[in-house]
Amino acid sequence: MNEKKAGPLQGLKVIELAHIMAGPVCGLMLADMGADVIKVERVPSGDDSRFFTPPEIDGESAAFMMMNRNKRGIAIDLKSEAGVEVLKTLLKTADVVTENYRRGTMEKLGLKYDALRKSNPGLIYCEISGFGRTGPYRDRPGFDLIAQGMSGLMAITGEAPGKAPCKVGAPVTDITAGILGALGIVAAYTNRLKTGVGDRVDTSLFEAGIIHTYWQSAIALATGESPQPMGSAHPLNGPYQAFPTADGWITVGAANQANWKRLLMVLEVPELAADARFHDNSMRMKHRKKLEIILSDLFRQQTSSFWLEKLERGGVPAGPVLDICQMHSDPQVKAREMVIDINHSKIGSLPTIGLPIKFTNNPGEITSGAPLYGEHTREVLREYNYSEKEIADLIDVGVVIAC
């Protein structure tokens, strides 16, 4: 039987009808904070991310295992009436259902929000789509690349104006949409605790991309002009960017006047304090490219470690530019338990990314690896009072799959 999980969302039952990334991120956040997330995968192949290979570990997709740890898995054929009935049974007592199907899919299954809330008025129904469930783009399929382009993110990412459009390396709209979905669910759950009534939560990759443009949108709405790519520099203050050193790159955040003065002391260039071009932030932004050249020439004279030590002693915010493997080994990452080992039922000990939210009194925990395809089908159905014969019959006719 499923052991009770720790965390502030302990006791919350979530049915995840979501695949690939945005919806699974939402479920992952809830699961890590204590919710019992039951991932429903389609028959016969399961979540598409099971086939995002290479890499794989012992035949299991690394991508799937990252997005679906801490969940239980059940495989149901939703093209069959019997399969839909099984799902309806799960949803009758669920607190939350998440889905990122194309618009109309849940309606075809007879599982639209208005129908489900009649038998479960406290249900929180979360939809994560490409563009949201309303508006002229509501029927468009959505992917992170498309959302990054249309939200303006690709227009402000890159080294300089006139270069080829560049997307953020990570699928930020997928991940952010999942986090927004989890936030919406927690907000709806808080309201349900007061009113007993559930809600419908609707967010999208497009909106997830738009909220990353807060600074650039502030500029555009104030001036009528769209900001352009600036490399690692900040659109509103500086110096705040990456600089080359003798052996690599570092980031320096001397974005306010106090840190600017500290930076000049570290670099031993007091004459720049008297330079009218760099007198205050407004002037530094006006002459940003010239300042970048001056500072880059100074930083290139010593190694990254030399400058990072000196900047830290001088009280200037700074850091190294790490690759992913270096980040995994960083002592702060280890101290914050952001790379941890979990137990996968097939592979055994497996490293994964940890929970980014820390709780003092009721911490969340990551206890298990991603489910094998149909790993918990029998376990979950037993919890819903299916007999062993009923489960066996469903497996025999292919309505559900169990490993």
Describe the structure.
With 403 residues, the chain is α/β, with parallel strands linked by helices. The protein has two domains: 13-211 and 341-401, Rossmann fold, CATH 3.40.50.10540; 249-320, 2-Layer Sandwich (formyl-coa transferase, domain 3). Helix content is 39%, strand content 16%. It contains 18 helices and 14 strands. It has helices at residues 22-32, 62-68, 81-92, 105-108, 113-119, 144-150, 153-156, 172-195, 205-210, 214-223, 257-267, 281-286, 288-299, 304-313, 324-329, 331-335, 377-383, 388-396, and strands at residues 13-17, 36-42, 56-57, 60-61, 72-76, 96-99, 124-129, 199-204, 240-244, 249-253, 318-320, 339-344, 348-353, 400-401. The strands form four sheets. The protein has a seven-stranded mixed β-sheet with strand order 8-7-6-1-2-5-14, sandwiched between helices. Strand 12 (339-344) and strand 13 form a beta hairpin. Helix 1 (22-32) crosses helix 8 (172-195). The longest helix has 24 residues, at 172-195. The two termini are 16 Å apart. The model has no long low-confidence stretch (mean pLDDT 96).
Question: How many structurally independent domains?
Answer: 2
Q: How would the global form be characterised?
A: elongated
CATH superfamily of the largest domain: Crotonobetainyl-coa:carnitine coa-transferase, domain 1
Straight-line distance between termini: 16 Å
Tell me the structural class: alpha/beta
**Oligomer category:** single chain
Low-confidence stretches: none
CATH topology grouping of the largest domain: Rossmann fold
Strand content: 15-25%
